[in-house]
Amino acid sequence: xxxxxxxxGTPKIAAACLQALLDEKINVVGVxxxxxxxxxxxxxxxxxxxxxxxxxxxxxxxxxxxINDIYDELLELEPDLIVVCAYGKxxxxxVLNIPQFHCVNVHTSLLPRWRGGAPIHxxxxxxxxxxxxxxxxxxxxxxxxxVIYQEKIALDARETYRTLYDKLAKISYxxxxxxxxxxxxxxxxxTPQNNALVTIAKNISRDDEKICWxxxxxxxxxxxxxxxxxxxxxxxxxxxxxxIHESEVDHLTPCGTLGEIMNxxxxxxxxxxxxxxxxxxxxxxxxxxxxxxxxxxxxxxPFKLKNSFNx
Length: 311
Hints:
It is a single chain. By secondary structure, the protein is an alpha/beta fold. It is built from nine helices and 15 strands. It has helices spanning 12-23, 49-56, 71-77, 93-96, 119-125, 161-179, 206-209, 217-226, 293-296; strands at residues 4-9, 27-32, 37-39, 44-46, 61-62, 81-85, 103-107, 130-137, 147-154, 233-237, 240-250, 261-265, 268-272, 277-285, 291-292. Strand 6, helix 4 and strand 7 form a beta-alpha-beta unit. Helix 5 (119-125) runs antiparallel to helix 8. The longest helix is centred in the middle third of the chain and has 19 residues, at 161-179. The chain is elongated.
């Protein structure tokens, strides 16, 4: 019997999961992804990675503004299982109730830690030492269902959002290939989450991106890494947005006032924090391209010793 699967997902990590289903010869009868959206200053319409893969495989694609808009179409597809990864919209209860073998989600954290839409960002920002992938049953409460399987990974000391994202995409692919066939069974063993250990990974806001210098350099460096390369942390200097792409903690330079530039050389711009200093090694001034500090010093730049970033 060829079981029927509908897949929900949008970005690169979801495309890895869709590819896992295809590589396992799963009968994917439909793909649901977010509507195409305009990107960048020129607002060029860009399709999701999942849509690009689904088109290449000539799969049936749905891009509803609201999931309930395609409820009847989903019923007609008669899926035995729905697989979700980073779809980007809340699943409705009546859609969750469609397949006989339920809906499963590939979530990029070790649940119950980091339920929500930005688990990878929060893992790096909060300096977690481990992360991983959870395969879980979906319920109407976000990321609260029973866990079927988890795979852990240790975080590197200089982990960024991008490096961890790529690692977890590979793990997600492997986990789904390993377990997908066993999910066509109502006797799958799963474990309830410990609600006492829940942490929430809320979506990153503009306020979360802003660097406040009244924190330790270790915390700010983790913020920079956790937001690189999407959406990228920023600071304000002379009323101008400066995106901070790369940084490191400077334990040696004495602190001054918060946000004060303590040193500028080819190795970086050293800025005073509440504890220790942050050495900025790559930045991007609004309207310009990202550059290393060494490259920046070869041209004109606004940064001056003893001047301060806003805090």
